Amino acid sequence: MKLANLNPTAAPPDTKVASQTPAAAGSGKLRFFARGLVPYAYLSPTVILISVLMIVPIAMVVSYSFKDNVIVEENPVLVGLANYTKVLTDPDFLVALKNTFVFITVSTVAHLVLGLTFALMLNTSLLGGVTKAVFRIIYILPWLFTVAVIAVIWRLLLDPSGVVNYLLTTVGRMQQGVDWLSDPGTALWALTFVNIWAGFPFFMISILAGLQGISSDLYEAASVDGAGAVRQFLNVTIPQLRPVLVSMAVLDLIWTSQQFALIWMTTGGGPLNATEMLSTYTYKQAFSSYEFATASASAVIVLLLSLVLAFFYVRLQKER
């Protein structure tokens, strides 16, 4: 019988040393730290791009809004909230704010109503496949045109000698042609109509996708319970479409409030500020009056209003 090794300090011949040298421990921590930086390395190009194109310009505009004679003067003076006071008390800004409210409210409501109406028409089983395809092409045409093309088309159509006046005078609705975009009483409504015409196809396609995602079992269950077409629309279609409708409404409020190209190429904010919007007011302050500090203050106000709408949009998305 062999005696066991009774020396407590002797290690078994096949046992590995558990302890590590300080250099090995340091290299392990370095590898762990480098592995943690890999996700940030992938995100860094996007973060740099957003910082250069968004965060830095926004910060510069905000700083300009607290100074006077920016850009045109070498040493601008810090004036605090004076630019904001000047903008908020400017009658032209108040007119632009009112016109923007009317413009975005009417446009958003009309977009939703028209989009839902045409989407229901294209989703019905009463029309054949070929007929639906033809109507889809016709309805989506306004969305295919660029803003410049839309502005040129409608300026020609709404001209006193244009097609719209010709049709209205032919059917006896008018005695003589009206310059819709040059009359202060009709310019805002004509511009709003053009914006509605150009934007409703996007809502139609979005709502149509939502309609096609509603299960037919819900309509069958409602029909078994004795619900007619109207009750099915109110109790099945609208509740199922509510997330889509609310999201599209908030997005349209944001997009329409920032509309500039269509307004500038049709009326330029005129006549007599009848179609002046926050976007055109800000542009004129900067590049017509060269009041870049005032324009910056106006831009910050528009940004804050847009952030309020964006907050509600994000909150709705989280609730969904």
UniProtKB/TrEMBL annotation:
InterPro entries for this protein: ABC_transporter_permease, MetI-like, MetI-like_sf
GO process terms (BP): transmembrane transport
Domain ABC transmembrane type-1: 97-313
Keywords associated with the record: Cell membrane, Membrane, Transmembrane, Transmembrane helix, Transport
Superkingdom of origin: Bacteria
Region feature Disordered, mapped onto this chain: 1-22
Name of this chain's protein: Sugar ABC transporter permease
Residues that span the membrane, as ranges: 40-66, 101-122, 134-157, 187-211, 292-314
Topology term for the membrane: Multi-pass membrane protein
Protein family: Belongs to the binding-protein-dependent transport system permease family.
GO cellular component terms attached to this protein's record: plasma membrane
Location in or out of the cell: Cell membrane
Pfam family for this entry, one: BPD_transp_1
Predominant location category: membrane
